[in-house]
Amino acid sequence: MVKVANDLAAQAQQLPAEETIASLRRVVDHQAELLRREDEVNRILVQTVLTGGSLEDLGAALVGLFPGVTLVTTTDGRIVATAGSDDDRATVMALDCFDRTGRLIVEEEPVGVRAPGEVKSERTMVRIVAGTSDHGLLAVFTPGRVLTTTDVHGLERAAAVAALAITKEQAVSAVEGKYRAEFLRDTLVGRVGAPEEAIAHASSLGWTLDRRMVVVVAETDEDDVHTTRDSDELRSLQDRFVRAWVQAVRTREPKAPVAGFSQEVVALLPAPCGGEGEQETLMRSVGEVVKVVRGDGGGGRRTFSTGVSRPVDSVTDIPRAYAEALRAVAVGRQMQGESAVMHFDGLGIYRLLSLIPDTADLRAFVDEALGELATDAQPSYADLRQTLQVLLDTNLNVAETARVLFFHYNTLRYRITKLEQMLGPFTSDPQLRLTLSLALRIRQMRGV
Fold first, then answer.
1. Does this model's pTM top 0.85?
2. For 136, phi and psi rounded to 5 degrees?
3. 365: left (phi over 0), alpha (psi -120 to 50) or beta
4. Collapsed DSSP state (helix, strand, coil) of residue 428
5. Angle, CA 290 vertex, CA 56 and CA 260 arms, to 5°
6. What stretches of 129-263 show up as alpha helix (H) in DSSP?
7. Mean pLDDT score of the chain
8. Higher model confidence: residue 111 or residue 207?
9. Contact indicator for 38, 154 with CB cutoff of 8 Å
10. What would the CATH number be for the domain defined by 189-353?
11. How many CB atoms lie within 10 A of CB 231?
12. Which of 438, 428, 388 lies closest to 412, judged by CA?
């Protein structure tokens, strides 16, 4: 203000009296407009707080102040609230600051104002902070207008209101989530009493259990027992993981039970009512939820594996389905590695192999069955194992194996001869073929 006054005094000495008065009047009018604008922002924000407004209410108020689109995101960029017209939101979501899953790429979005010369759309980001807790970002997209310093100050005050709303929502959710999680845990282990009572209790919690459904278990791939992360960081990561699943599930199935426990999240999703392609339809639906939760892997997200049970029609069958989903997670990770998504019926022979607790026995079986072919002592061994696998999968159909592997018929016959010299007469011994097939499957399992 002192600088402004000095500048005005210097200008006044160089201008006629009439022009000086006009210049002063413009400055005063401008300052009055800024004060009026700031007072309007304060009035609206205070009114939002006094009425106990939610994030959606705050967003609607901000859109009135800053025409465009307002978003509230988590610290990793997942959108939790939005306001603005459908057309404006569609335009904003098409910007390159969002990934293909709709996550704001917070790693590349600095806090503050981004002018149109830097990006395709004017936008401003401020952090939502309460004490030492970072709750995410408040983002305002204002096409055709860059926010002033006064506007940004107002947006920072709005972020404080957002922090208040988030803190209140988290406190309520923590209490509700505790009861929901306890009930779901009792359901998963068969301690909820009669089905009718369980269905009624679930209904009072906003959940539906009287329908055909599957149990879905999502488990983080990182071993939290043997980790260098401290307990606060682990708790924060797990809370973020649970919130992501709850939001993704509720968006698609508002009445589907979902809760987090330790390193896992469990959801009871509706299942198709039988028919051809039931499993494919189900896995496609689960895959869509997984895709949303996983995003593009940015924002500090941890990888996780997902297991899906067979469909159940009764509450009494949920414990069995939960065990199936847990088995699908564990074995799926062995079969596919991290980020596996596996249905229980897709486990096949791995389901039985995973029941053997001592992996040393499995390793010994592989070594005895495949001999030196169990190792990678020579570069050709990997190709020979692949040839053997395809031969067994095609039931020794030489023509089909040659087609799949793009081999000449004579080349494949040579390889078969070499394999029989190393492994024995598997082409004429069905018992040996079974042994070799099991050994190859076991070798594919991670950790063996």
1. no
2. 135, -150
3. alpha
4. coil
5. 70
6. 149-188, 195-204, 231-252
7. 84
8. 207
9. yes
10. 3.30.70.270
11. 8
12. 388
